[in-house]
Amino acid sequence: MAVEMKTLIAMSGGVDSSVVAHLLKEAGHECIGAMMKLYEQPSDIIKNEKTCCSLSDAEDARAVADALGIPFYVFNFKTTFSEEVMERFVKAYIRGTTPNPCIDCNRFVKFKKFLLRAEELECTHIATGHYAQIEKSNSSGRFLLKRGNDHTKDQSYVLYAMTQDQLSHTLFPLGEFTKEEVRKMAEKQKFVNANKRDSQDICFAPDGDYAGFIQRSVHNLKIEKGKFINRDNRVLGEHKGIIHYTVGQRKGIGAILQNPEPLYVTAINPEENTVMVGVNEELYSKTVKATDINLIPFDKLDNSMRVTAKVRYSFAAQPATLWQEDDDLIRLEFDTSQRAITPGQAVVIYDGDIVVGGGTIIV
Asked: Whose CA is closest to 358, among 268, 273, 290?
């Protein structure tokens, strides 16, 4: 049955957002396609298939929009992306934490700036190619965020910061499908990007050299060398600057310290400019505290709650008990110790398939 809904679709040039446009047009939406220009790719990496925002991506998105007969625009959000994502990324590493720029991009650009642009175009909704689901609770009347049916592609982790207003105006048409089903739909429509590889890297640092990006971004930034220490504060060697390290990192550390056992970063202290290292067993902890929190099914948690939670996107959610200790502070106690809990990363909390919320890890 056709619906009367005007929807602005975030089209990246990839297969997922292209199928979103197809599904919504078939459902009777008045569709507008739009690409968000977030970052100017250097010429030497424009052809990297794992990045986004390239000229070829825009061409693919426009080709799909043309094939569907819908308008297509390119929105210049580079200033917002630079201020809200790239600068946050740089500042986080400088203060010794490890950020997740995809979460910031969703929070400040895709579901804030893009939604405002949709309102200017008199659209009732926006739609993206995320593998997640939104439904309205019959009991509370609140909008709920849920995992996508295909848990191998589920992207609810990077969406935990969505507000009730954002959820009420957002559509995730792919939440009920698998990636294989989405590709088959694209092939059936003969989309130019039906077999295009997914973007996987951070768009502004696709080579993975985060320290290099930070040094290029901050004029006259002085990267001071410091001390590698162990948990007994014994000096083991010299590190090359805290922006080069993250909790759990092993690469390069053993070669520097020539330790008989593999060593990993266990903590970073920017005030003292030290990087603590230890053996694998020292990376495990049961307790997580997080701030800058967002709760979705309710405004505040009054009692403890049994949940599952994940401390990184790639980790499986693990059983834990959740408490809200303050207006902007939550604590989780996991049933079993978790490896490499990293300040700056997000802890995201689930009640079954429902996203309870999450926050930024501080300890």
From this structure: 290
> At the topology level of CATH, where does 6-188 sit?
Rossmann fold (3.40.50)
Residue 56, φ and ψ in degrees, nearest 5: -65, -35
Given this structure, which CATH class describes domain 283-361?
mainly beta
User: Using CB atoms within 10 A of its CB, is residue 300 exposed (0-12), middle (13-18) or buried (19+)?
Assistant: exposed
What pTM was estimated for this model as a whole?
A: 0.92
Out of 31, 52, 105, 123, which one is annotated catalytic?
A: 105
Q: Which two tokens stand for residue 344?
A: 């700056």
Confidence at 220, pLDDT banded by 50, 70, 90: confident
| Domain positions in the chain | 6-188, 222-278, 283-361
Residues 303-362: pLDDT tens digits?
A: 999 999 999 999 999 999 999 999 999 999 999 999 999 999 999 999 999 999 999 999
- Reported as a single tens digit per residue, the pLDDT across 126-161 is 999 999 999 999 999 999 999 999 999 999 999 999
Integer-rounded Cα Rg, in Å, for the chain is 22
In whole angstroms, give the CA distance from residue 112 to residue 293. Answer: 17
Superfamily of domain 222-278, CATH level 4 = Adenine nucleotide alpha hydrolases-like domains (2.30.30.280)
Question: How far is C-alpha 334 from the geometric centre of its chain's CA atoms?
Answer: 23
Q: Is the pLDDT of residue 54 over 80?
A: no
Which H or E element spans position 74?
strand 72-76
With beta carbons less than 8 A apart as the criterion, state whether 104 and 90 touch: no
Q: Is 52 a catalytic site residue?
A: no
Residue 247, both tokens? 């909790």
Which residues is 269 bridged to in the sheet?
274
> Are 275 and 242 spatial neighbours (Cβ–Cβ below 8 Å)?
yes
Spatial distance between the Cα atoms of 208 and 193, rounded to a whole number of angstroms: 25
